[in-house]
Amino acid sequence: MADRGVDPSILPKDVRDSLSELDLELSEGDVTQKGYEKKRAKLLAPYVPQTRGVDPTLQCEHRKQTPAPSSAPAPSSSSKYHRARSGGARDDRYRSDIHTEAVQAALAKHKEMKMALPMPTKRRSVFVHSALEACTPPDTSSASEDEGSLRRQAALAAALTQSLQNTESWINKTVQGSSTSSSASSTLSHGEGKTPHSSLADILAQARIENSPAPPDVTYPSSSSSDRTSHIDLPSFSGLVKGMTRDASKSSIMDTADGVPVNSRVSTKIQQLLNTLKRPKRPPLKEFFMDDFEEIVEVPQPDPNQPKPEGRQIVPVKGEPLGVASNWPPSLEAALQRWGTTQAKCPCLTALDVTGKPLYTLTYGKLWSRSLKLAYTLLNKLGTKNEPVLKPGDRVALVYPNSDPGMFLVAFYGCLLAEVIPVPIEVPLSRKDAGGQQIGFLLGSCGVALALTSEVCLKGLPKTQNGEIVQFKGWPRLKWVVTDSKYLTKPSKDWQPHIADATTDPGYIEYKSSKEGSVMGVSVSRIAMLTHCQALTQASSYTEGETLVNVLDFKKDVGLWHGVLMSVMNKLHAVSVPYAVMKACPLSWVQRVHTHKAKVALVKCRDLHWAMMAHREQRDIHLGSLRMLIVADGANPWSVSSCDAFLNVFQSHGLKPEVICPCATSPEAMTVAIRRPGVPGAPLPARAILSMSGLSFGVIRVNTEDKNSALTVQDVGHVMPGALMCIVKPEGSPQLCKTDEIGEICVSSRAGGMTYYGLPGVTKNTFEVIPLNPAGVPIGETSFVRSGLLGFVGPGSLVFVVGKMDGLLMVSGRRHNADDIVATALAVEPVKTVYRGRIAVFSVTVFYDERIVVVAEQRPDASEEDSFQWMSRVLQAIDSIHQVGLYCLALVPANTLPKTPLGGIHLSQSKQHFLEGGLHPCNILMCPHTCVTNLPKPRQKQPVGVGPASIMVGNLVAGKRVAQAAGRDLGLTDDQEAKKYLFLSEVLQSRAQSEPEHILFMLLNAKGVAVSTASCLQLHKRAERIAAALTEKGNLNTGDNVVLLYPPGIELIASFYGCLYAGCIPVTVRPPHQQSLSATLPTVRMIIDVSKAACILTTQILMKTLKSKEAAAAVDVKTWPTIIDTDDLPRRRPPQIYKPPTAEMLAYLDFSVSTTGMLTGVKISHAVVSALCRSIKLQCELYSTRQIAICLDPYCGLGFVLWCLCSVYSGHQSILIPPMELETNLSLWLSAVSQYKIRDTFCSYSVMEMCTKGLGTQTEALKVQDLPLRVCRSGGSSSSRISINTELREHRATFSGAAA
């Protein structure tokens, strides 16, 4: 039509009004179609340029159909549309000065582009035009839609040219294709020029009418829009169609939503009905959703040239069969008994003092006798005969310093003889030890309540002013037992320890720190201990009577396995060199080897390095007696340099090259591989020179290009005897690697850990791994244990280790090893800058990817110029060798990084300090521009097609819940541990036996003074008396309801558990107010009547109030149920304590009265109580050492649960503050938080409002108080919480904590 070539925005207002009136007349039937077209053409004729000899309407059509020669519109596709839409807006906080110019250019470019989005519209006939459409200019910004229109026109013209006679068949094919193109039709009908499409509809309609007058099936559904791109590019066909004008076609037909032409006589209402039935076309469902990651950043694409594994799939490697010697004992206790009785005078252990001289020698006879005495004392002298403190299977902490191996040896074997499980840990030095809280978590999860230590160690522990051992942060309350011989009891003649063959029962628990800093306990069975010792004996060729020098920590790992377990099994003489001696005299262990003619030495690379640096101090040493120099950290790929340097220096002192035996170990798989002692004169194993670039992609490539980026790796020997090893992919499912691929080493053997104690979920992922083949099918039923070591199996079944999972840094899809980064930094002449080579490397997540952070301790005498010069060279070296940029390189003052007990750097704590801003570096170099390559995308003009409403529609269409929140899984299981805490009455009984003196509740009065406390035993005894009174005085049956009418206090709690002991159902009710009995007593009466209570437990004062004359004026006092006064109860115990048959039985009734006077009662079962208490415990991190303050009414809801239930379940101490006391002392709550150093408190909004309004004028006086408040949890109505929280935050300057 003529108006399609005219921009309506340039028409005068009167012309636009006339067009609107004309459209209205046509829609109402006041004008015919022919008259409508004539009048419309007349109105627009002055504004349409004319061409001589051409019809104006065809001229306009031709101008619309012929694009400019310079324009090359791209094909339309949903994927390109999606990419254009999800380009993302760039937030100002991600702006970088380096990219400002590029971003501005991109913004300018995208600002010029006008996005054209297909919008869902109402489908209408081209016969009907609204006034709005007549005034809406055509949107010509979408070139893809214009081209789609031209291609459809061209395809139709070509078909008409080929066969005008076979119009019917052509129409049938075209209609089927057109019906699938409803998306394009609806798009063009929304704001885009309709001239091309309308003319096509005219031609189709004319052909349809001439060949097939039958009406179409308007109910035929339209198919997908997949055919809209199937077009043929042909030239314009306006000159081919002659004799059929637009007006003629429009006068008789119109187009339905299917694109099927129908007779123009179809009424407007029928057409509207059809449009309603036809579902409007919407964008694809995926376009309603936007991924934040893809929206914000540029996703890095993998390098197409990166090396990929090309070898065959690896086959699990078997170690040699584990032989069985005739003299091997059936258990380690049996071995100790054998040597302690038959070889009593043979030396077992020699300990050195701080000067490096022998302090004492422990013989096998002394070890046996002292272990017997300790086992007897643990089982028979720590408690009563009926209630022993320790039972077989209990866990016991061993707390001994590294300078006292003898006492540790006695304690360890004493625990084995007593059949208790030792948990060796480090000696705590202060409450602020790095990782001390995680050790406490380990002890708590293992249920440790007893700690064994020496007298000297006990005296050195930090103590309070009263002389008691301080409560270490996060630790459970421990009973300390001194194991010196003078404190032990000699066993009676008729007592003998139970020494049986090794079983699968846990033998000991070794702690292990993860990459994130959490501490887990690896449980090792007794049969695994014995099998591991046998495998080490066979692999290392140990013989009886050999001397072994141990420089390692004897409480864990290689030092424990060789120096404590395997040495006793083979009757070795172990010489322990403590860490303090190594710091004073690094050559002391070499002197011990020379003096004792030792056959075996256990060392680390640092010991080799220190001895090599100090060898000039003493030359008269000979190491020819050594047949094995076991390097415990041989899994470190950089250990080869220390081994080579040590060999070069001490080869002249008799050290043979074949005695150096690196090994690979982990707490989970224990000894993974160890190099066997070589034969003199035999060639040494070859070494692998690998490309570090290939290692970063997880493949093995021999380095041939750059020597600087090569990693020389030595083998760690063969697989242990009786073990099976495989290599699996470190990420995702445990799929077997290829022969030239780096993966995680997994071991299947009897000599390995069983579980992470108390962590079944993590255990399954580590200790129960079944490798898969490339097809995802398990290779067998044998389960493997993840070792946490990254490596491969080389020629000759030699095992090579290139790193650890804990040290893995994943940056932009490439793997880097923290040890490699440390080695590169140390290679840049750190003598003038770095203090004792102390460097920490870890990664932090910045902008959806890991970034590498290097922190080093700076020498005190290092200048700023030297420091920055070293830092610049380190950046260049790491970039050149590892092809990775550093995010941050910081230098901190010497001795400020958190330390491990043996002096190493505590990585997780260092990372935590970095994230919290607590490192306080003296020099820092931030280089985000070198490593953050996935910067935000340039800001683009956001389309208006998909807004919040469309996203919500997309969620609804996809079946997603729009508003839904879920907490984490409670992890409830059916095991014995879960059933143990199923009923609160049983939990209280258990706590009364295990920790009777532990204070659960403390009640404060208005002056802030503790007026009463309740320990576990006191609460239990009080509950027993109340249960006996209910049974005797009340004559109650199981399941009767009992009303508890008490003021806030401990008596209310005791009465609740007394009801549970008696099998009654407690109902807590707020007592009536003395000054307003007429208003409050009817509520009490109503709850008693509704609950059908059979008895009332209360105090003597309240009992008199219930029977007073004032009460008689409000209610009928003669119909009260039985009232029992619990102030003075006889010391009696119930005949038995009731235990519910199932957890679905009722625990208590919770009645509450709303502000409108509505009474609501809720039945609470024991299962609900257990789940609720467990969820609060997990969410609020409640355990026995925690202390919280509660200022809530204890009669219903969360206040009752926190006041009466949670402390018994979780074991924490609750400081109870009755809210009514705040009426006389507004600062009571905050003063209690300050006085007791409370970190977590619970209160109601009314309490917060009262404190903020009442204390608002006293902020200056309160500034002297210290509030270490971490979390303030508010419970209650949400009507005024915003204003109250705002007021509390305004007064936050008074406190040192924060309110949440």
TrEMBL record:
This protein's superkingdom?
A: Eukaryota
Region of interest: Disordered = 47-96, 174-198, 211-238
Name of the protein this chain belongs to: DMAP1-binding domain-containing protein
Q: Where is the composition biased (Low complexity)?
A: 67-79, 178-189
Domain (DMAP1-binding) ranges: 7-127
Pfam name, any one:
DMAP_binding
Tell me which PROSITE patterns the record gives.
DMAP1_BIND
What organism does the UniProt record list as the source?
Answer: Acipenser oxyrinchus oxyrinchus
| Coiled-coil boundaries | none
**Similarity annotation:** Belongs to the DIP2 family.
